[in-house]
Specification:
CATH superfamily: Glutaredoxin
Helix content: 40-55%
Number of domains: 1
Distance between the termini: 66 Å
Number of strands: 7
Organism: Comamonas kerstersii
Subcellular location: Cell envelope
Structural class: alpha/beta
Number of helices: 5
Pfam families: Redoxin (PF08534)
Strand content: 15-25%
Order of helices and strands: HEEEHEHEHEEH
CATH architecture: 3-Layer(aba) Sandwich
Keywords: Cytochrome c-type biogenesis, Membrane, Redox-active center, Transmembrane, Transmembrane helix
Protein name: Thioredoxin domain-containing protein
Shape: elongated
């Protein structure tokens, strides 16, 4: 009798574990679908932005669609950001030599205009820079940077779909892999 009850308990326990696994999988699938939907909305909102450049001109991000685009969120007060910018500038120059086959580069400064202007006078960049101000942190969060840390980089394919994202400094290997991917 005790053996039968023990066996029944074991079956109930195994059934409960299986049910929990199925429920967990369902919740995970629902969450992933919800995140993808909100990610698509964030990407659409990104492409709709018009941002001021340090020279005062406006940049419609939509104008950069049609070719792969690497976007780097940075700030003058962020040591890892400043450290990786020369490498990103060399990458942008190499990619520009590839013409329409190259990856475009865009820097989005999460900073004050005056600070960015001073920094760019000392260290000019060969790629466009636009200003997001402190709203850039919110923008990065909507695009998957949950903690809002910098630097934060995104890679979009030629159709404007988000392919890669990285929080922290990019490496030359990251750039090679990302350029080969799109």
């Amino acid at each position: 009798m005790k053996a039968d009850k023990s066996m029944q308990r074991r079956h109930w326990l195994m059934g409960g574990v299986a049910l929990a696994a199925v429920a967990g999988g369902g919740i995970y699938a629902w969450q992933a679908t919800r995140d993808m939907r909100s990610n698509d909305e964030a990407v659409d909102a990104f492409w709709a932005l018009q941002l001021q450049q340090p020279d005062g001109q406006m940049l419609a991000l939509q104008s950069l669609r049609g070719r792969p685009l690497l976007v780097n969120f940075w700030a003058t007060w962020c040591p890892p950001c400043v450290r990786e910018l020369p490498m990103l500038d060399r990458f942008a120059q190499e990619q520009a030599q590839r013409g329409s086959q190259g990856v475009q580069m865009l820097g989005l400064a999460v900073d004050q205009a005056a600070s960015v202007q001073r920094w760019l006078q000392r260290q000019p960049l060969s790629f466009p820079v636009a200003l997001t101000g402190t709203g850039g942190v919110t923008l990065t969060r909507s695009l998957g940077n949950i903690n809002g840390g910098l630097p934060f980089s995104l890679l979009f394919d030629g159709q404007g779909r988000l392919q890669q994202r990285k929080i922290g400094e990019l490496s030359p290997q990251d750039l090679q892999q990302w350029a080969a991917q799109v």
